[in-house]
Amino acid sequence: MDKYASAVWEGGLKDGRGQISTESGVLSASPYGFNTRFEGKKGTNPEELVAAAHASCFAMALSMILGEAGFTASHMDSKAVVTLDKVGDGFAVTKSHLTLSAAIPEIDQAQFQELAGKAKAGCPISKLLNAEISLDATLLS
Q1: Residue 1 pLDDT
Q2: Using CA atoms, how far apart are residues 13 and 36, in angstroms rounded to an integer?
Q3: Going by DSSP bridges, is the β-strand pair 30-32/17-22 parallel, antiparallel, or unpaired?
Q4: Please, what is the angle between helix 46-68 and helix 109-122, to 10°?
Q5: Pairwise CA distance, residues 123 & 40, whole Å
Q6: 81 burial level (CB within 10 Å; 0-12, 13-18, 19+)
Q7: b/e for 41-54, b at 16 or more Cβ within 10 A?
Q8: Cα three-residue angle 93-78-109, rounded to 5 degrees
Q9: Average pLDDT over residues 90-110
Q10: Confidence class of residue 40 from pLDDT cuts 50, 70 and 90?
Q11: What is the rounded distance in angstroms from the CA atom of residue 54 to the CA atom of residue 125?
Q12: The whole model's pTM is what?
C-alpha cells in the first residue's frame, strides 16, 4: 500500500513559504514555513504532522492488539509530542513521547500496560522513527 503527500516551497528558509497536500485531500495546500515551525504562526509543520501520524498509528495499533486479546476500547485519547533538537550543525527529531488515556472495559492495569507497550513498539510509525519513543498510559475506570 502506498500513500502520498506533497509539499511545494517557494523562497528562502526564513522568508519562504510552502503548502502541504495529502492524497486524501484532508490537507489541501495547507500552509507551512519557518514561522509556523519556529514562531508559532498559523499553519502546520513537519514535526506536527509526524506527531499526528504517530498518535493515530499508535491508537490504531493498540485497537488491533486489544481486539486480539479480546478487548475493545470504548474510548482512547492518544497524543504524541515530537521533539526537534539541535544536533551538530543541524536539527533532528530525537524523541516522540506518547500519552494515552483509555477506557477499556474489563481489562486490568497490568494487561493494559503490557498491551499498550506492544502497540508502542509495533506501530509502523514507531518502527519508522529513529528516536527515543516513550509512553505514559492511563487506564480510565
Answers
A1: 86
A2: 12
A3: antiparallel
A4: 130
A5: 29
A6: middle
A7: eebbbebebbbebb
A8: 115
A9: 95
A10: confident
A11: 6
A12: 0.91
